[in-house]
Amino acid sequence: MLQKLDNILLEKEIKPTAMRLLVLDFLLSQQTAVSLSDLEAAFYRSDRITLYRTLKTFEEKGLVHSIMDGTGSVKYAICEEGCECAPEDMHVHFFCNKCQETICLPKSRIPKIPLPDNFKQEEINLVIKGTCGNCS
Description:
The protein is globular, with a radius of gyration of 16 Å. The chain has a single domain (about 1-130), classed as Arc Repressor Mutant, subunit A. It has helices spanning about 1-10, 20-30, 35-40, 50-60; strands at about 35, 65-70, 75-80, 90-95, 100-110, 125-130. Helix 1 crosses helix 2 (about 20-30). The strands form 2 sheets. It has a 3-stranded antiparallel sheet. Strands 5-4-6 form a 3-stranded mixed sheet, with no helix packed on it. The protein starts with a helix and ends in a 6-residue tail after the last strand. By secondary structure, it is α+β, with helices and mostly antiparallel strands. The chain is built from 4 helices and 6 strands; from the N terminus they run ααβααβββββ. It comes from Pontibacter mucosus. This is Fur family ferric uptake transcriptional regulator. Its cofactor is Zn(2+). One of its GO terms (molecular function) is transcription cis-regulatory region binding. Keywords: Metal-binding, Zinc.
């Protein structure tokens, strides 16, 4: 398993450190997006700054994407294989009002939105809010 994690990081040109391997393993085991606070709870002896920098490195290298789900806390989820996390590859997210979980919906793509001339798209975020299947 450790070799698989190493390979995932190396494919994204991320140096595999002990903390990066632990965070990657944790993220891969999650069914929902996680916040920095979630990571802190899972790694309570780890430094918040180190965890934050790990997430930002993963995001910059296209290993995770960030989600603004309206809770005031940025959440992170592993990118699908082959996803470049570019706007044309972005998908919809679902936020459950009951359990407060954020779930990626990778089969529901955000459509390309035509913008006026001289407008430059920098990010897209589409979050559907409601009740998930587990809470229904």
